[in-house]
Amino acid sequence: MFKSNTLHPARLFGVSLAILLVVANHLVVAADANSDAQEQIRQQERERAQREQLTPTPDVRLDQGEPATALTLLPKDESPCFTIQSIVLTGDSSPQFQWALTAANQKNDPPTGRCLGSQGINIVMKRIQNAIVAHGFVTTRLLAAPQDLNTGVLTLTLIPGRIHAIRFAPETSSRATQWNAVAAKPGDILNLRDIEQSLENFKRARSQ
User: Fold this and answer.
1) In this structure, is residue 3 part of a structural domain?
2) In sequence order, which residues have a C-beta less than 8 Å from that of residue 155 and are 6 or more positions away?
3) Compositional bias (Basic and acidic residues) at which positions (predicted)?
4) Is residue 32 part of a domain?
5) 130 within a domain of the structure (yes/no)
6) Residue 145: Cβ-neighbour burial (10 angstroms; 0-12, 13-18, 19+)
7) Residue 130 belongs to what domain range?
8) Which of 46, 76, 126, 147 is deepest in the core (most CB within 10 A)?
9) Is residue 189 part of a domain?
10) Domain boundary at 159, 176, 199, which?
């Protein structure tokens, strides 16, 4: 005798119920996973927003120096301090930058004749550095080497930022060469004004 393959109604109901339970379970798991993923995305967005609020926006503008405000005035009662009678600028190409020393003597707040400590000396250096940068020498820096300030002389060392090389992109016009478009050459002290002038020269060479 042949056995019938037809499922008994009770068994059929049991199988159907089991399938529904499995499908429902998968749907619940999928819904939980989707909810967790959305919550994780929201958390990441909140953290990113907090980081953006805490991270200061970089200022790419050229620093033109700071006025002698309450924040940049020389301190009066530093200890220890040394009476500074003169400020000297030395180093490679320092004769070219002697003019920057005048920036240290801001109106009503000169450093000479004052007793300065580390904070006051840093303010003096910042004044001179700002003046150098304001004239376009954005890669030239000042250093204060170890020295005996009991002499009354503050010696600052100039470190000029020089152009190492000038390279042209392969697609650069033959008219725009180093000799007729770039207002500087390797070995020169880098000056932002020369770069701006070079860009203007490139524009003119391209239009010819």
Assistant:
1) no
2) 87, 88, 90, 144, 145, 147
3) 42-51
4) no
5) yes
6) exposed
7) 82-159
8) 126
9) yes
10) 159
